[in-house]
Amino acid sequence: MADIIDEANQEYDQHLTAAIANRAKPLPPSPICLNGNCGEKSVGNTSYCCKECREDHEKELRAKRQRKAA
Ligand SMILES: [Zn+2]
Questions:
Q1: In 3D, which of 27, 36, 31 has the Cα closest to residue 54?
Q2: Most exposed of 14, 34, 44, 48 (fewest Cβ within 10 Å)?
Q3: What is the mean pLDDT of residues 6-21?
């Protein structure tokens, strides 16, 4: 009986590992502020040093996307 349980557990582990590997991983936050030439360290779990930098950079990204689309 124990063997069957071990096998089942092993199979379960393999499925779980494959499922995790297949899931698209989100990009880890950048340790350095992404806004222009800011160069400051990012705070917490973000890619920016401050709210203003995040807003600036997001505006820039939006503008770039619009330029590409045009
Ligand atoms: Zn910054």
A1: 36
A2: 44
A3: 86
